[in-house]
Amino acid sequence: MLSFINRQEFQTSYGPHLENYRFFNASYGRRDPFINTGLSFTRVAADDFEGRDAQGAPTGSFGAGDTAFNLSAARIFNDLSLGMTFKYISSTIENESASALAVDAGLVFLGDKYAAWPCDLGFSIRNLGTSMKYINKREPLPLTASAALAVTILGSVKAGINISDNLTENAFEFGLGMNFSPVNNFSLSGGLSRDPAKTAAYDSMPLRLNAGLEFQVSDFMLGYGFVPVGELGSFQRMSIGLRFGETGKPAKKDRGGTKRRSKPLNKKNWEFR
Question: What CATH number is attached to the domain comprising 10?
C-alpha cells in the first residue's frame, strides 16, 4: 500500500494473459513529508487476432489493447489510511479507439492496537468516471465497490475475506485469501473467489483459484503469481521490486500507544481482475 512506504520504491510486473494477451505494469512510489505519491503505467495487449470481412474471408491480423496511466496519493491519519488514484484509460481495437477518465478511492481502518486479533478493514470504489465511446456506442467503465477484512491469526499467518460488486453489470463476487510467512523475507499466498452469476468464462471452474510466492533480499523483491482459468488457460505474472533512497520519518504512534507495524514491499493478494 502506498500509505506505508518509507522510501522510494519501483516495481514492475509482466506475464501472459488469456487469448495471447500480455500484461505489463511499471509503478513508482515515494514518501513525502505531507503525503505519499505514486505513478504507474499498465498495458494489456495482443497483436495477432485474425481479421475477416463480411463474407468470412481473411483480411489479415490486427491488434487490441488497453492502457492506463495512474497518478496516486495516500496518507495515514491516526488509525485511518486514505488513498486516491486518478486514471486516464485508453482502449484500441484495430483502427478504433476510445478513452476515459476515472478515479479510484479507498480507505483502510488500521486495527493494529488490538493486540489479540490485529486486523485491517478496507473499503474502495473503483472506476468512477466517464464512459468509453467506440464509434457511436458508449460503454460505461466497470464501476466496482469492494470491502475487505484482513486478520493476523498468528504472527506469520494472515487471513482475509473480500466482497465486491460490479455495479455496472450487477455482478457480485466474494473471495477468501491467506498469506503465510514461514521464514523472514519469504511468503506464500493463496485464495479462492467465486462469482455467483458465474460468467461463461468460468463455467468449468466453480471456484477461481490464485496462488503466489514472494521472496525479499535486502531492498530487492521477486514475486510470482498464478491463476488458472479452466479451458481458457491461466494468468501468470512475474514481479520485481526495489527500494532505494533515504528512509523517511517513522510512522506516528497510534492513539493506543502501540507503534504501527511496518508493511512489506508487496503483500497484495495475487488475484488478477
Answer: 2.40.160.40
Contact (CB, 8 A) for 175 and 194: yes
The candidate with the shortest Cα–Cα distance to 49, out of 37, 59, 34, is: 59
Task: With CA atoms as reference, report the closest residue to 22 among 50, 49, 47.
Answer: 47
What range does the domain containing 34 cover? 2-48+60-244
Are 225 and 210 within 8 A, CB to CB?
yes
Residue 19 dihedral angles phi and psi, to the nearest 5° = 50, 45
Residue 23, in any domain of the structure: yes
Burial label, 26 (beta-carbon count in 10 A; 0-12, 13-18, 19+): middle
Supply the DSSP string of 199-244, one letter for each residue: -GGGTT-SSEEEEEEEEEETTEEEEEEEEE-GGG-EEEEEEEEEEE
Residue 135 has pLDDT above 80, yes or no: no
pLDDT tens-place string over residues 232-260: 778 889 999 999 987 765 444 433 444 44
